[in-house]
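User: Please predict structures.

Assistant: First:
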Amino acid sequence: MGWRAAFQRARVFWGTLNDEQFLAWDAAGQARRTQAVLGRSGPIPGYLVSVSVNAHLAMIGQPMVTMPPLVPVFPANPVVGLAIINTASAVSIKLQLSGAPGQHVLVFGARPQSPGVRYVDHYPFLGVLPEEAGAEVDITALYVARFGVPPFGKRVFIQTLQQINGWQDQPQTFSARVPPA
C-alpha cells in the first residue's frame, strides 16, 4: 500500500510541473533506454522517469524533485550477508555489512518460505538501513513487524538495494534458514 500511495503522489506531482521541467525530464528519458526485448530498446518517456524517481523518493519520505537529478555512480552495495540466530526461541535477523551504507540502503523482505525454496518474486518494503550502521545491522524488528517471528526451519529472504537521489541500483538477494534453538 505504501508503494501505491507513493506512486500516486508522484503521478499527481507530474501534473504540477511547468513546460521547462517537462522538457528536462524528457531529456533525461532520452538518455535512458528501456531494457532490450528481442534486440530492440528505446528511450524512456520523461513522464515515466519523473514518476519513477519521485515515487522512490516519496516511498522513503524524501521530498520530490521538479528537475531530474544526475544519475549517480553506485558504489558496491555494503550488504554482504544475512545471518539468523535462534537462541532460546528468540530469533534475531541481521544483515552483515562490508562498510558504511551509502545515501539510502532499502530493505525488502519476503514472508517465511519452505527451506527448499530458492526464488521469491514478491518483496514488500521493510525499511531503510540506518546510515550509522556498524558491521552488522539488526533488522529483526523490521521483519517481525511485517511477517511475525519466522518459525524454525523456514527460509527467510531479504533483498537490499541502494537509492541515491531517487535512482536505484540492482537489488541483491540473501536467504538463510532459521536454525534450531
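Second:
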Amino acid sequence: MITVKGNNGTGSENYSVFTIVREITMMNNYLYAIDGKTTRTYAYPCTETAVGPGGVSYVDSLRKSGLIKYARIGGDENSVITDFKNLDPLLVPAWGMHGGNTGAELIAFAQKAQKTGGMVVFMFHGVGGDYLTAPAAAHKELLEYLAKNKDIWVATFQQAMDYVSKTSK
C-alpha cells in the first residue's frame, strides 16, 4: 500500500473510512461556498482507494455518500476506455504523468483513443513545475496536436463522464 502524505504529514494509514469521507465532505462544503456547485469529481490521492492500517477501501462509502459523481484512479499509457457500459464511474482509469513524459508519449496516448473510438484521461499534477510535472514543451506539443485534430473531443473529466453516463445507458 502506498502511504499518502497530506500537507499536514498525516499518512493514509492514519485515516479511517469515516475520517476520509468526513474530510471530503468538508472540502465539498468549502467548494460549494465558493462556486455553488453540488457535483464533484475526485482523484484518489496518489491513486490510493484504501485507508487505515489494513488498507480498507473507501470507494463504496464514497458511492453511498453521494459526495462524488466521478473519480479517477491510476492507470498507465494503456488505459484506454472502450467498454463504457461497464465503466464504474468511481473507478475511471487515468494515466498519471510521472514527471518526464515526452510530447510523443502524450500524443501516442491520445492517438490510442482515436484508433479505438475510446476515451483516455490524462492526470496532470502540474505542467512545467510542481510535483510530477509534464514538461511544458511536451504539454505544448500535445495541445498543438489536439488543436490540429478536430476529430478529438477535448473535455473536462466531468463533461466527458456526463456524456458517457448519458449515452451508455
